[in-house]
Protein backbone atom coordinates (compact mmCIF):
# COMPACT_ATOMS: atom_id res chain seq x y z
CA UNK A 1 0.00 0.00 0.00
CA UNK A 2 1.29 3.48 -0.87
CA UNK A 3 1.52 5.35 2.40
CA UNK A 4 -0.13 8.55 1.18
CA UNK A 5 -3.28 6.46 1.63
CA UNK A 6 -3.04 5.92 5.36
CA UNK A 7 -0.08 4.79 7.48
CA UNK A 8 -0.23 1.25 8.74
CA UNK A 9 -1.90 1.04 12.09
CA UNK A 10 -0.96 -0.06 15.54
CA UNK A 11 -0.46 -3.70 16.44
CA UNK A 12 -3.87 -5.40 16.75
CA UNK A 13 -4.94 -6.75 20.07
CA UNK A 14 -3.66 -3.85 22.18
CA UNK A 15 -6.91 -1.91 22.12
CA UNK A 16 -9.97 -2.14 24.29
CA UNK A 17 -12.06 -2.84 21.19
CA UNK A 18 -10.91 -5.83 19.17
CA UNK A 19 -11.38 -6.20 15.40
CA UNK A 20 -14.75 -7.84 15.80
CA UNK A 21 -17.90 -7.96 13.71
CA UNK A 22 -21.21 -6.13 13.58
CA UNK A 23 -22.70 -8.80 15.82
CA UNK A 24 -20.22 -8.09 18.62
CA UNK A 25 -20.93 -4.37 18.54
CA UNK A 26 -24.66 -4.97 18.60
CA UNK A 27 -24.00 -6.26 22.11
CA UNK A 28 -21.53 -3.63 23.32
CA UNK A 29 -22.99 -0.47 21.75
CA UNK A 30 -26.62 0.40 22.45
CA UNK A 31 -28.75 0.94 19.37
CA UNK A 32 -30.84 4.07 19.02
CA UNK A 33 -34.20 3.69 20.73
CA UNK A 34 -37.47 5.59 20.91
CA UNK A 35 -37.85 8.84 18.99
CA UNK A 36 -34.59 9.13 17.07
CA UNK A 37 -35.48 12.20 15.00
CA UNK A 38 -32.94 14.37 16.81
CA UNK A 39 -30.05 12.04 16.02
CA UNK A 40 -31.34 11.17 12.55
CA UNK A 41 -31.16 14.86 11.69
CA UNK A 42 -27.38 14.60 11.87
CA UNK A 43 -27.17 11.50 9.70
CA UNK A 44 -26.59 11.68 5.96
CA UNK A 45 -29.38 11.74 3.43
CA UNK A 46 -29.94 8.44 1.64
CA UNK A 47 -29.78 7.37 -1.99
CA UNK A 48 -31.78 4.38 -3.19
CA UNK A 49 -29.60 2.30 -5.49
CA UNK A 50 -31.42 0.03 -7.96
CA UNK A 51 -30.45 -3.59 -8.43
CA UNK A 52 -28.21 -4.25 -11.40
CA UNK A 53 -25.19 -5.92 -12.93
CA UNK A 54 -21.97 -4.02 -13.65
CA UNK A 55 -18.37 -4.51 -14.70
CA UNK A 56 -16.25 -4.19 -11.55
CA UNK A 57 -12.56 -3.36 -11.75
CA UNK A 58 -10.13 -1.29 -13.81
CA UNK A 59 -10.65 -1.44 -17.59
CA UNK A 60 -7.78 1.00 -18.22
CA UNK A 61 -5.05 -1.02 -16.47
CA UNK A 62 -3.96 2.09 -14.56
CA UNK A 63 -3.79 0.65 -11.06
CA UNK A 64 -0.98 -0.72 -8.96
CA UNK A 65 -0.55 -4.48 -9.54
CA UNK A 66 -0.39 -5.13 -5.79
CA UNK A 67 -3.87 -3.61 -5.35
CA UNK A 68 -5.59 -6.25 -7.47
CA UNK A 69 -7.89 -3.96 -9.49
CA UNK A 70 -8.06 -6.52 -12.29
CA UNK A 71 -9.40 -8.56 -13.92
CA UNK A 72 -12.65 -6.76 -14.68
CA UNK A 73 -15.51 -9.09 -13.77
CA UNK A 74 -19.30 -9.06 -13.75
CA UNK A 75 -21.07 -8.43 -10.46
CA UNK A 76 -24.80 -8.35 -9.70
CA UNK A 77 -26.05 -6.43 -6.68
CA UNK A 78 -29.47 -6.26 -5.08
CA UNK A 79 -31.06 -2.87 -4.49
CA UNK A 80 -29.86 -1.07 -1.37
CA UNK A 81 -29.84 2.28 0.40
CA UNK A 82 -26.57 4.17 0.98
CA UNK A 83 -25.52 7.45 2.55
CA UNK A 84 -25.28 10.28 0.04
CA UNK A 85 -22.17 11.51 1.87
CA UNK A 86 -19.52 10.22 4.19
CA UNK A 87 -20.51 10.31 7.88
CA UNK A 88 -19.90 13.83 9.20
CA UNK A 89 -18.29 14.98 12.42
CA UNK A 90 -21.71 16.11 13.65
CA UNK A 91 -23.23 12.68 13.05
CA UNK A 92 -20.36 10.90 14.76
CA UNK A 93 -20.57 13.33 17.70
CA UNK A 94 -24.25 12.37 18.15
CA UNK A 95 -23.18 8.72 18.35
CA UNK A 96 -20.50 9.50 20.95
CA UNK A 97 -22.91 11.58 23.03
CA UNK A 98 -25.52 8.81 23.01
CA UNK A 99 -23.18 5.91 23.81
CA UNK A 100 -20.05 7.20 25.51
CA UNK A 101 -18.01 5.13 23.08
CA UNK A 102 -14.24 5.69 23.04
CA UNK A 103 -12.51 5.33 19.70
CA UNK A 104 -9.31 3.39 19.28
CA UNK A 105 -7.28 6.56 18.72
CA UNK A 106 -8.57 7.90 22.04
CA UNK A 107 -7.59 4.67 23.77
CA UNK A 108 -4.13 4.53 22.21
CA UNK A 109 -3.61 8.23 22.84
CA UNK A 110 -2.12 9.02 19.43
CA UNK A 111 -3.01 8.99 15.75
CA UNK A 112 -1.60 9.92 12.33
CA UNK A 113 -1.85 13.49 11.05
CA UNK A 114 -0.54 14.84 7.74
CA UNK A 115 2.45 17.12 8.40
CA UNK A 116 0.96 20.27 6.83
CA UNK A 117 -2.25 19.88 8.82
CA UNK A 118 -0.88 19.39 12.35
CA UNK A 119 -2.36 21.56 15.08
CA UNK A 120 -0.39 20.55 18.14
CA UNK A 121 2.43 21.69 20.37
CA UNK A 122 5.83 20.37 19.35
CA UNK A 123 5.95 18.18 22.45
CA UNK A 124 2.91 16.27 21.17
CA UNK A 125 4.53 15.38 17.83
CA UNK A 126 6.08 12.01 18.60
CA UNK A 127 7.72 11.09 15.30
CA UNK A 128 6.98 9.97 11.76
CA UNK A 129 5.58 6.81 10.21
CA UNK A 130 8.26 4.51 8.83
CA UNK A 131 9.35 5.66 5.36
CA UNK A 132 6.69 8.37 5.18
CA UNK A 133 7.85 11.61 6.85
CA UNK A 134 4.60 13.37 5.86
CA UNK A 135 2.66 11.27 8.39
CA UNK A 136 3.26 12.39 11.99
CA UNK A 137 2.27 10.48 15.10
CA UNK A 138 0.48 13.11 17.17
CA UNK A 139 -0.48 12.71 20.80
CA UNK A 140 -4.10 13.67 21.39
CA UNK A 141 -5.18 13.34 17.75
CA UNK A 142 -8.58 11.65 17.51
CA UNK A 143 -11.97 12.04 15.82
CA UNK A 144 -12.70 15.01 18.12
CA UNK A 145 -9.27 16.57 17.48
CA UNK A 146 -8.49 15.38 13.96
CA UNK A 147 -5.37 17.51 13.40
CA UNK A 148 -4.14 17.30 17.00
CA UNK A 149 -5.11 18.69 20.41
CA UNK A 150 -5.34 22.30 19.14
CA UNK A 151 -8.04 21.37 16.59
CA UNK A 152 -11.67 20.51 17.31
CA UNK A 153 -14.47 18.83 15.38
CA UNK A 154 -16.89 21.61 16.32
CA UNK A 155 -14.96 23.93 14.00
CA UNK A 156 -15.71 21.62 11.05
CA UNK A 157 -18.99 19.84 11.92
CA UNK A 158 -19.98 19.23 8.28
CA UNK A 159 -16.61 17.76 7.29
CA UNK A 160 -16.24 13.97 7.24
CA UNK A 161 -15.27 12.34 10.50
CA UNK A 162 -11.70 11.04 10.35
CA UNK A 163 -9.29 9.34 12.76
CA UNK A 164 -11.74 6.42 12.97
CA UNK A 165 -10.73 2.79 12.64
CA UNK A 166 -12.71 0.06 10.92
CA UNK A 167 -13.62 -1.07 14.42
CA UNK A 168 -14.96 2.39 15.28
CA UNK A 169 -16.98 2.48 12.06
CA UNK A 170 -18.61 -0.83 12.98
CA UNK A 171 -19.51 0.55 16.39
CA UNK A 172 -21.23 3.55 14.81
CA UNK A 173 -23.10 1.24 12.45
CA UNK A 174 -24.33 -0.92 15.32
CA UNK A 175 -25.75 2.14 17.05
CA UNK A 176 -27.31 3.58 13.91
CA UNK A 177 -28.78 0.27 12.72
CA UNK A 178 -26.59 0.39 9.63
CA UNK A 179 -23.69 -1.59 8.14
CA UNK A 180 -20.63 -0.75 6.11
CA UNK A 181 -21.04 -1.20 2.35
CA UNK A 182 -19.47 -4.19 0.71
CA UNK A 183 -16.77 -3.28 -1.76
CA UNK A 184 -19.11 -4.23 -4.62
CA UNK A 185 -21.92 -2.04 -3.26
CA UNK A 186 -19.50 0.83 -2.84
CA UNK A 187 -18.16 0.70 -6.40
CA UNK A 188 -21.58 0.16 -7.96
CA UNK A 189 -23.04 3.15 -6.12
CA UNK A 190 -19.93 5.27 -6.70
CA UNK A 191 -20.16 4.75 -10.46
CA UNK A 192 -23.60 6.36 -10.47
CA UNK A 193 -24.79 4.31 -13.43
CA UNK A 194 -21.80 5.08 -15.68
CA UNK A 195 -20.21 2.08 -17.41
CA UNK A 196 -16.51 1.53 -16.76
CA UNK A 197 -15.64 5.21 -16.37
CA UNK A 198 -12.58 6.45 -14.51
CA UNK A 199 -14.45 8.88 -12.31
CA UNK A 200 -18.02 9.42 -11.11
CA UNK A 201 -18.52 12.05 -13.83
CA UNK A 202 -16.67 10.45 -16.78
CA UNK A 203 -13.11 9.87 -17.94
CA UNK A 204 -11.52 13.33 -17.74
CA UNK A 205 -10.29 14.53 -14.36
CA UNK A 206 -11.06 18.23 -14.86
CA UNK A 207 -13.79 20.14 -16.58
CA UNK A 208 -13.76 23.60 -18.13
CA UNK A 209 -15.77 26.48 -16.71
CA UNK A 210 -17.75 29.06 -18.64
CA UNK A 211 -14.74 31.40 -18.77
CA UNK A 212 -12.29 28.68 -19.72
CA UNK A 213 -11.01 28.12 -16.20
CA UNK A 214 -10.21 24.65 -14.86
CA UNK A 215 -13.20 23.09 -13.13
CA UNK A 216 -12.19 20.91 -10.19
CA UNK A 217 -14.58 18.03 -9.57
CA UNK A 218 -13.04 16.47 -6.47
CA UNK A 219 -10.77 17.21 -3.53
CA UNK A 220 -7.32 15.78 -4.29
CA UNK A 221 -3.77 17.11 -4.00
CA UNK A 222 -2.87 20.10 -6.16
CA UNK A 223 0.82 20.95 -6.52
CA UNK A 224 3.91 18.98 -5.55
CA UNK A 225 3.29 16.10 -3.18
CA UNK A 226 3.94 16.12 -0.25
CA UNK A 227 5.44 19.57 0.25
CA UNK A 228 3.22 22.05 -1.58
CA UNK A 229 -0.55 22.02 -2.00
CA UNK A 230 -1.72 25.00 -4.04
CA UNK A 231 -5.30 24.33 -2.90
CA UNK A 232 -6.62 25.13 -6.37
CA UNK A 233 -9.68 23.02 -5.56
CA UNK A 234 -10.28 25.11 -2.45
CA UNK A 235 -9.03 22.73 0.24
CA UNK A 236 -5.79 21.79 1.97
CA UNK A 237 -7.29 18.81 3.78
CA UNK A 238 -10.92 17.73 4.07
CA UNK A 239 -13.84 19.44 2.36
CA UNK A 240 -17.40 19.51 3.75
CA UNK A 241 -19.21 16.29 2.93
CA UNK A 242 -21.69 18.06 0.65
CA UNK A 243 -19.04 19.60 -1.64
CA UNK A 244 -18.74 19.16 -5.42
CA UNK A 245 -21.31 17.66 -7.80
CA UNK A 246 -23.28 14.48 -7.19
CA UNK A 247 -22.97 11.42 -9.39
CA UNK A 248 -25.85 9.86 -11.30
CA UNK A 249 -27.22 8.18 -8.18
CA UNK A 250 -26.92 11.33 -6.06
CA UNK A 251 -23.78 10.38 -4.14
CA UNK A 252 -21.20 13.01 -3.27
CA UNK A 253 -17.41 12.68 -3.20
CA UNK A 254 -16.77 9.09 -4.11
CA UNK A 255 -13.47 10.35 -5.55
CA UNK A 256 -11.09 12.11 -3.18
CA UNK A 257 -11.68 13.91 0.14
CA UNK A 258 -11.41 10.89 2.48
CA UNK A 259 -10.87 7.19 2.08
CA UNK A 260 -13.92 5.14 3.11
CA UNK A 261 -13.88 1.85 4.97
CA UNK A 262 -15.77 -1.05 3.39
CA UNK A 263 -16.93 -4.26 5.04
CA UNK A 264 -14.73 -6.64 3.05
CA UNK A 265 -11.42 -8.19 3.89
CA UNK A 266 -8.76 -7.32 1.31
CA UNK A 267 -6.98 -9.86 -0.89
CA UNK A 268 -5.12 -8.70 -4.02
CA UNK A 269 -6.05 -11.83 -5.99
CA UNK A 270 -9.74 -11.85 -5.04
CA UNK A 271 -10.92 -10.52 -8.42
CA UNK A 272 -9.33 -13.49 -10.19
CA UNK A 273 -11.52 -15.90 -8.24
CA UNK A 274 -14.57 -13.73 -9.04
CA UNK A 275 -13.84 -13.86 -12.77
CA UNK A 276 -13.53 -17.63 -12.64
CA UNK A 277 -16.94 -17.86 -10.95
CA UNK A 278 -18.78 -15.97 -13.74
CA UNK A 279 -21.26 -13.30 -12.67
CA UNK A 280 -20.97 -12.96 -8.90
CA UNK A 281 -24.11 -12.09 -6.96
CA UNK A 282 -23.87 -9.76 -3.94
CA UNK A 283 -20.26 -10.66 -3.11
CA UNK A 284 -19.17 -10.08 0.46
CA UNK A 285 -15.45 -10.39 -0.24
CA UNK A 286 -12.98 -13.04 0.87
CA UNK A 287 -13.35 -14.75 4.22
CA UNK A 288 -9.83 -13.74 5.26
CA UNK A 289 -7.43 -11.03 4.22
CA UNK A 290 -4.51 -8.75 5.03
CA UNK A 291 -6.68 -5.83 6.11
CA UNK A 292 -10.03 -4.20 5.43
CA UNK A 293 -10.81 -2.57 2.10
CA UNK A 294 -10.64 1.20 1.72
CA UNK A 295 -12.16 2.98 -1.28
CA UNK A 296 -12.35 6.41 -2.89
CA UNK A 297 -8.96 8.02 -2.34
CA UNK A 298 -8.40 11.20 -0.37
CA UNK A 299 -7.20 14.79 -0.41
CA UNK A 300 -3.64 13.42 -0.48
CA UNK A 301 -3.98 11.55 -3.78
CA UNK A 302 -1.83 12.88 -6.63
CA UNK A 303 -0.81 11.27 -9.92
CA UNK A 304 2.86 11.69 -9.10
CA UNK A 305 2.49 9.34 -6.14
CA UNK A 306 -0.97 7.81 -5.80
CA UNK A 307 -3.75 7.80 -8.41
CA UNK A 308 -6.21 5.95 -6.23
CA UNK A 309 -8.99 8.51 -6.60
CA UNK A 310 -10.21 6.49 -9.63
CA UNK A 311 -13.45 4.52 -9.19
CA UNK A 312 -11.75 1.14 -9.60
CA UNK A 313 -8.92 1.93 -7.19
CA UNK A 314 -8.71 -0.04 -3.98
CA UNK A 315 -6.46 -0.11 -0.97
CA UNK A 316 -6.53 -1.51 2.55
CA UNK A 317 -5.32 -1.15 6.08
CA UNK A 318 -5.50 -3.08 9.33
CA UNK A 319 -8.82 -2.75 11.20
CA UNK A 320 -7.36 -0.75 14.07
CA UNK A 321 -5.74 1.84 11.78
CA UNK A 322 -6.85 5.47 11.82
CA UNK A 323 -5.61 8.66 10.19
CA UNK A 324 -6.64 12.16 9.19
CA UNK A 325 -7.79 11.12 5.71
CA UNK A 326 -9.89 8.05 6.50
CA UNK A 327 -13.63 7.95 7.18
CA UNK A 328 -16.69 5.94 6.09
CA UNK A 329 -20.28 5.95 4.86
CA UNK A 330 -22.98 3.39 5.66
CA UNK A 331 -25.75 1.39 4.03
CA UNK A 332 -29.08 0.20 5.38
CA UNK A 333 -28.91 -3.27 6.87
CA UNK A 334 -30.63 -5.91 4.73
CA UNK A 335 -33.40 -7.79 6.56
TrEMBL record:
> Which Gene3D superfamilies does this UniProt record tie to the protein?
paralog of FGE (formylglycine-generating enzyme)
Q: Which InterPro entries match?
A: CTDL_fold, Sulfatase_Mod_Factor_Kinase, SUMF_dom, SUMF_sf
Domain of life according to the entry: Bacteria
Q: Which residues form the Sulfatase-modifying factor enzyme-like domain?
A: 48-331
What's a single GO MF annotation on this record? Answer: formylglycine-generating oxidase activity
Q: Which PANTHER family match?
A: FORMYLGLYCINE-GENERATING ENZYME, SULFATASE MODIFYING FACTOR 1, 2
Protein's recorded name: Sulfatase modifying factor 1 (C-alpha-formyglycine-generating enzyme 1)
User: Which species?
Assistant: Arthrobacter psychrochitiniphilus
Amino acid sequence: MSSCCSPEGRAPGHAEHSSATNQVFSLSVPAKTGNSSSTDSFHAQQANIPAGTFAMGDPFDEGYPADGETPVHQVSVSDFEIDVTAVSNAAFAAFIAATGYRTESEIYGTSAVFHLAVQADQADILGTAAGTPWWLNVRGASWAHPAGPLSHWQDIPEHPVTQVSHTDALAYCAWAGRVLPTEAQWEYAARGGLVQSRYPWGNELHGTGADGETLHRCNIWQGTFPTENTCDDGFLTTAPVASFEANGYGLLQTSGNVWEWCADWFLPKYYKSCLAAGTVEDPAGPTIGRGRVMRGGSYLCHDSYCNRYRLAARSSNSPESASGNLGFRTVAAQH
